[in-house]
Amino acid sequence: MGEHGNGDPKSGAVITAGEGESGKYALENPGLPPHRPRLADVDEKAAKRAERQVSVLFLISIIGTVVFFIGYFVVGVTEGDLQLLRLQNTLLGLGSAFAMLGIGLGVVHWAKTLMPDHEVVEDRKPLRAEADREEAQKILTEVVDETQIARRPLLRNTLIGAALLAPLPAVIMFRDLDRSENFGVERMRHTIWEEGVRLVRDPTGTPIRAADLTIGSAMHVIPENLREIQSHGQRLSEKAKSVVLLMRMNPADFKQVSPGREDWTYEGIIACSKVCTHVGCPVALYERHTHHLLCPCHQSTFDASQEFKVVFGPAGRPLPQLPITVDEEGFLVARSDFVEPVGPTYWERGNA
Fold first, then answer.
1. Against a cut of 0.85, is the pTM above it?
2. Who's near 224: CB < 8 A, 6+ residues apart?
3. What CDD domains does the entry give (predicted)?
């Protein structure tokens, strides 16, 4: 290959753009196209008109939210009154639609008519530690100037009003999904696990003997008293927060046993809540060699050998551990309920 010069870039076998005779094949950088100013860029009356249009769209969003509130709080629906029910659904639907549509179209129209649309090329340069703060301040100032919020108070005030009100319909509707008296963190503070309740397989309801579990095995279990709940909806709700992952390890593999938890396991058998402490996804993947539990939603990883401590991912606290033992017949039973709330971590939740 080297004998014929094919590997030598100067042999002439390869045409190199921009050098010698081959320069005629090179393409020059065409640069940016000339900027065409919009009407609002050169005519302040047009800019004012665009500002009013954007503000009207934000006002439509505010009105839509008010219509939603009227339908939700003012229109009272009695059982069997289909007319009022249709009216309420219409107000709720139109109100939430206009609340979202108004603020969305307003932001789009604002960007198209008032925010700068010229293209900018910025050379990459190394950051200097002493200039970081000044550079960040300059960027923030430029962003505020480009939005024109400072000099267009009508636009700013209507945007703030729409942005504050628009999310409220969604918050209210989600809150209204549960009308029970103990809504909130108290609902997750307690489950139907209690002392003496057997751990059974799901869905067969078969009790589990400690002798039947081998080292490295893991299974999904539920409380035996779940079958006593007659209401299908309540049974599903209780099951969702009571599901447990049961596994057996070599007792020598436990790296951490906190004071007071010495009797929470039985001959290497350990149990924890399956509800991830991040956003409540089911933790279902167990790696027997590392003793890690993985949540498939956001990859939070918990270590069963360290009382389900978080070793990776966004979860903020360990999986709650269920204290277990065996009864007189050798079946696995709970010592008590979880000692802390199960499920995602909220700002209003404590550990007690």
1. no
2. 197, 198, 199, 200, 205, 207
3. Rieske
